[in-house]
Amino acid sequence: MTRSELIERLIGRTRPKQPIHEGGLKDKDMLLQAFDVKDCDLCVRAILKYMVSSLVAGKRIEIRGFGSFAVNLRPARVGRNPKTGDSVLVPEKKVPHFKCGKDLKLKLNGQK
Q: Less packed terminus of the chain by CB within 10 Å, N or C?
């Protein structure tokens, strides 16, 4: 799913199934009706931006039931150039790491 598809799904979730004058909305649903394309786009972008800035700062992100994001450090190592076979020093680097949550893992395997 792309960011645009996520925004479209959020918009579809927040639109009422029936027009208001036909009794399609209840008082508790008024908040859901308030979102439009710009609102959903702003929310998704803000969440992703905050997640990226947190990972860059070295923080861990945990979303209960979904999983956690962290940054792992890969140490420097000696690699090989596949064309020439020469030794090449590969510098250390930080890589993002995602660990699936228990609930998501169970749903993926059809156990819940």
A: N
Q: Compute the distance between CA of residue 112 and CA of residue 93 in angstroms, rounded to an integer.
A: 38
Domains of the chain, each with CATH number or no CATH: 1-59 (no CATH), 60-112 (4.10.520.10)
Kindly write down the DSSP assignment for every residue of 62-101, as one continuous string.
Answer: EETTTEEEEEEEEPPEEEE-TTT--EEEEPPEEEEEEEE-
Using the 8-state DSSP alphabet, how is residue 34 labeled? Answer: T
Give the residue, 17 or 75, on which the prediction is more confident: 75
pTM of the model: 0.70
Residue 7: Cβ within 10 Å count: 19
